Amino acid sequence: MNDYCIQATNNMVNVSRIIGGELEPIRVRGEVSIPIADFWPIFKQKVEYEADELLSFIIFSDNESFSIDPEINIADEFVSNHSELESLVFEHLTGGCFINTYPHIDIDIVKQPYRFPVAKDEKEDEELVNNEMATDSLQTFFRRKTRELQKESYQINKGK
Fold first, then answer.
1. How do strand 54-61 and strand 12-19 relate by DSSP bridges?
2. Where are the beta strands (DSSP E) in 20-134?
3. What would the pLDDT profile of 1-14 be if each residue is shown by its tens digit?
4. Whose CA is closest to 86, among 67, 101, 65?
5. For residue 135, what are the contacts with CB-CB under 8 A and spacing of at least 6?
6. What are phi and psi of 88, to 5 degrees?
7. pLDDT tens across 11-33, in order?
8. Which of 30, 40, 57, 85 is a Cys-bridge partner for 69, taking CB atoms 3.0 to 4.6 Å apart?
9. Are 26 and 47 in contact (CB under 8 A)?
10. Are 72 and 49 in contact (CB under 8 A)?
């Protein structure tokens, strides 16, 4: 049983294994992104999916209709713990994306869909999106740094 994170945006898909709350990208022929139309057959071949295997997914997508291949069996729960999954979602969720989890889990920090507010004036809208993206990137940077410091602190305290 494995946990996966799928990011499907602009008709391309990136997939990663979730290991210890971190993403480990899966490459296909050296490429991280796969065209969305080819994704599921390539994914099943790459991870050597077997019919009785159970998988779990977090999916970020700019297309609300993107879903799991119906042949894939979904696990009853994730291997990763809930706090790791919440941190991962908080760190990687970007504006304009929908999030789905298979199996379903409640993530308190997310409102569906996570989208930037729309301004009335095009110039205002462009400025707002640029400001939001800068803020989002800055927030992502500090979330990652905070997680790194928490891990270091835990390892130091554990070693005492």
1. unpaired
2. 22-25, 33-35, 54-61, 73-74, 98-102
3. 899 999 999 999 99
4. 101
5. none
6. -65, -45
7. 999 999 999 888 999 998 889 99
8. 40
9. yes
10. yes
Nearest 5°: the CA angle 42, 48, 52 is 115
Q: How many residues does the chain have?
A: 160
Phi, psi of 96 (to 5 degrees): 85, 0
Q: Are 27 and 46 in contact (CB under 8 A)?
A: no
Taking 90 as the threshold, does the pLDDT of residue 88 lie above it? no
Both tokens of 66, joined, read 């993107």
Amino acid at 57: F
What tokens were used for 47? 């991870």
- 130 sits in which H/E element: helix 122-159
Residue 54: beta bridge partners? 73
Which amino acid is present at 60?
Answer: F
Distance CA 144, CA 140 (A): 6
In the numeric block, the tokens 């989208």 are attached to 115
Q: Which helix (H) or strand (E) holds 19?
A: strand 12-19
